[in-house]
Automatic annotation (TrEMBL):
Organism: Buttiauxella ferragutiae ATCC 51602
InterPro entries: CbiG_hydrolase, CbiG_mid, CbiG_N, CobE/GbiG_C, CobE/GbiG_C_sf, GbiG_N_sf
Residue ranges of domain Cobalamin biosynthesis central region in the record: 132-211
Domain called CobE/GbiG C-terminal: residue spans: 223-339
Protein name: CbiG family cobalamin biosynthesis protein
Transmembrane region(s): none
Secretion signal, residue range per the UniProt entry: none
Cobalamin synthesis G N-terminal domain segment(s): 46-126
Pfam families xref list: CbiG_C (PF01890), CbiG_mid (PF11761), CbiG_N (PF11760)
C-alpha cells in the first residue's frame, strides 16, 4: 500500500499508521522523515506512477485534492486500486474508489479501527448491511461471464430486497461460512429451489441443471494445468487440447488459475501465448522440483533425455494442486496435459 501525506500533521498520522500497517509512505522533500520516500518530480506524478504499481493508495489530504489528482487515472472497477482518504487528525476515513473488488471498504474499516476513526462507506450494499457479489467474487478469487453486468444486476436486486439465492457446489459448501453472504437466500438443492428472483451458483462445473429463473455462475479460479509439449508446438494445438481436457473433466474454462511446466519450457511460445491469452500465471518448475515427484507417475525415457526428468505435466500439476489431480493425463500431438484442483480459498 502507498500512503501520501502533504502536511506535518499528515506525516505524524502516517507515522502512527506505519506501526501497524505495511505502508510505503511518500511526502514532499521539506517534510521528509526517516523511512519516507520523497515525491518523484511532483505529487501528481508520484500518484500517477503508484496508481499502476500498488494495490491500494491511502491519502492523508482533502478529498477534493485526491479526486482531482486521480481523475485522469481512473479506468474501471475491475482494475483500479483501492483509494482511501483521511483527514490529518484521523477523525474520518473515506472509501473513495474500488470499494468492493479493490478492497477499499475493508481497508477503510481496518484503518478506522486502528485510529478510532469514523469509517465513511457509501456503497449501497454496505450501508444496507448486505453482501455484494463483487466482494464475494474477490474473496473467492472467482469470476463469471459478463462480470460487470452480473455484479450490477445482482447487487441492485439485493438492495431492492429481491430474493437472490446462493448455492455452493460440494467442494465449496464446507467453507461457505467463511464468506459474507448477508442478503442472499441459502439454497441446498438445485432440484428444489425456494421462491427466488435469481440464483447465484458457486461452482467449477461447465454446466448446471437448467432453471426457470436467471442463473449466474460464479466460478472460483482453482483448476491448474501441468503441460509438457514438443519444442515449437503450434499455439493453437496446445490451446485446443487444453480446452478439450477441461471439457472432458466438466470444468468451466473460467476456472483455470494457472499453467505450469519445466524450466526448459519457460520460453516456449505456445505456453507463453496461452498464459497471455488466458491472463493467468505461467509457473516454472526446475528439473529437481519435478524429479522429487517423478516416482509417482509413469516416466518416458525420451522425455528424460530431452528435459532431464521422465515426466513433466503430472508432477507440475501435482505441485500446483498439492497432489489433488483430476482425471487422466491427455497425451496427443506431442502434448501432455494433466489437470489438478488447487485447495486455495
Amino acid at each position: 500500500m502507498a500512503l501520501f501525506c502533504l502536511t506535518p500533521g499528515g506525516v505524524a498520522l502516517a507515522e502512527r499508521l506505519r506501526a501497524t500497517h505495511p505502508l510505503t509512505c511518500f511526502t514532499s522533500e521539506k517534510l521528509l522523515q526517516p523511512g519516507f520516500i520523497p515525491f518523484g518530480g511532483s505529487f501528481a506524478q508520484t500518484v500517477q506512477q503508484a496508481f499502476s504499481q500498488y494495490s491500494a493508495l491511502v491519502f492523508i489530504a482533502a478529498t477534493g485534492i485526491v479526486v482531482r489528482v486521480i481523475a485522469p487515472l481512473v479506468n474501471d472497477k475491475l482494475h483500479d486500486p483501492a483509494v482511501v482518504v483521511m483527514d490529518e487528525r484521523g477523525e474520518h476515513v473515506i472509501s473513495l474508489l474500488s470499494g468492493h473488488l479493490g478492497g477499499a471498504n475493508q481497508l477503510t474499516r481496518q484503518l478506522a479501527a486502528t485510529l478510532g476513526a469514523d469509517p465513511v462507506i457509501t456503497t449501497a450494499t454496505d450501508v444496507n448491511q448486505l453482501a455484494a457479489l463483487d466482494t464475494l467474487a474477490a474473496a473467492l478469487d472467482a469470476t463469471m461471464q459478463d462480470f460487470r453486468q452480473a455484479v450490477k444486476t445482482i447487487n441492485q436486486m439485493l438492495v431492492s430486497q429481491q430474493r437472490v439465492g446462493l448455492w455452493w457446489d460440494s467442494e465449496f459448501a464446507l467453507h461457505a461460512d467463511r464468506y459474507d453472504t448477508r442478503g442472499f437466500i441459502p439454497v441446498d438443492n438445485l432440484d428444489a429451489l425456494p421462491e427466488l428472483d435469481a440464483l447465484v451458483c458457486v461452482t467449477l462445473r461447465d454446466a448446471l441443471p437448467p432453471q426457470t429463473i436467471p442463473l449466474f455462475k460464479l466460478v472460483p479460479k482453482r483448476v491448474v494445468a501441468g503441460i509438457g509439449c514438443r519444442r515449437d508446438t503450434v499455439p493453437h494445438t496446445v490451446a485446443s487440447l487444453l480446452n478439450q481436457q477441461l471439457a472432458a473433466n466438466h470444468f468451466d474454462p473460467l476456472a483455470l488459475r494457472a499453467i505450469g511446466s519445466v524450466s526448459l519450457k519457460q520460453d516456449e511460445p505456445a505456453l507463453l501465448e496461452l498464459a497471455h491469452l488466458r491472463q493467468i500465471p505461467f509457473e516454472i518448475f526446475s528439473v529437481d522440483q519435478l524429479a522429487q515427484h517423478e516416482y509417482r507417475f509413469p516416466a518416458s525415457e525420451f522425455v528424460r533425455l530431452t528435459v532431464g526428468v521422465g515426466s513433466v505435466s503430472q508432477p507440475a500439476a501435482w505441485l500446483m494442486s498439492n497432489g489433488n489431480l483430476m482425471g487422466n493425463t491427455l497425451r496427443e500431438q506431442g502434448v501432455t496435459i494433466t489437470l489438478g484442483v488447487s485447495d486455495r480459498c
